[in-house]
Design goal:
17 helices; 467 residues; 4-stranded parallel β-sheet; single chain; Rossmann fold
Length: 467
Amino acid sequence: MPGRPARALKRLAEPGVQRCINRACGAAYSLRERIYLCPKCGETLEIDCRLARPKNPDFLRRSWAAGAKSKLPRDASGVWRYHALLPFGEDAPLVTLFEGNTPVFQAPRSAEYCGLSDLRLKHQGYNPTGSFKDTGMAAAMTQALISGASTAICASTGNTAASLAAYAARAGLKAAILLPHGQVSSSKLAQSLDYGALVLEIDGNFDACMRLVQELGDDPSIYVANSINPFRIEGQKTVAFELMEQCLWQVPHHVVVPGGNMGNSTALGKGFQELLDLGLIKRLPKLSVIQAEGAAPVAHLFEKLSPKQRADFENLPEKLEPVENPQTLATAIKIGAPVSWKKALRAVLRSGGKVIAVSEREIADAKAMIGRDSIGCEPASATTVAGIKKLVASGHIGRRDDVVAVLTGHALKDPDYMIRYHEGTLTAAHGAKDPATPKPMVGAFANAPQRVAATKAAILANLERRA
Ligand SMILES: [Zn+2]
């Protein structure tokens, strides 16, 4: 068995506290308290793992590398391998489906498309349920068990639902999922049904589902696993640790992620910050977040911030102006009022990154380009490559910079989108004069099926034309 990294870190008796992110409040609560917002001021919470800087950071690196080769479930999981940096005691009932350990691909065609000499894509769609949500859900369902709840609940555009359904089933908990009726891709819904969750479709949008879930959180038998849940952020922050191992501890200049509810960017920012605080890295990568134009409340706010406000990231505006009726075909990030915006924006500003928005057409073409690199992803993931192209054009990213984009979902999460793009029948409400009459989009890389005569000559002629 590899050396337990926990020994390398000095920690106080409790493996952390839940702390209000409002610096003026700063209230701290025990990890056992089942709260999702600060009871004093209503702000979101984050977990302070109270990690002390180790004398020898290399010991941690070596023990993680050894753990990666171990066959024990705790070490084979790309979340629990980093147990020493997570707010769980030694005796916690760790829930795992062998999440994490996702690949980092070289993407030469996407790099050229963006104007970069090199681009790497870390693909969180290679997780057990096909999305990045699984790393966080492993941690959240473990905490649900610790809390004594019997049901786990979430509101979701799809990926969270599929992940919750799978991890709740693995933990032996009942799962209930609230979805906006008619707004989710069928493959994600199919996953939730297959994992045995109770799926409740409501008339209303995602934000309405979120409000209901927060009300239900008062019931002691119910554990809320939305991205407001700080334990999910803890599981998701391990992506930063794993990425740095895969980069052989050479910090990339830029890490770029899609932005919906902003939990992913919050988690990555927290992960990198902890590595910096522990002395495992010397600087932060610039963290940039890309939203879809029709669902870009944080990008709008970022644009309005003065240079002084950008430098003073502890004193961000109190409120985010929500997008009332978010519109994007990238359903995984179709969110008008992201709950984790403040934590994410702080992380972006602290690192020197940006939050920008990209159009439906830019997302669609970037997705097809990622596909040409033999890497499938769902539409939301492709905001990264679309955003990197813009950030290179604007000079924020240098052509020779070391850039990693984090893809969040598997291509088969939304096969309809791909078929419609390549057949030329994709239409988008965002950007259309009248949203009721969606605008057709003809992709730059459309690859429609060809009708061909059943002869060898006809097939060869077609192959030649493709060149
Ligand atoms: Zn507070």
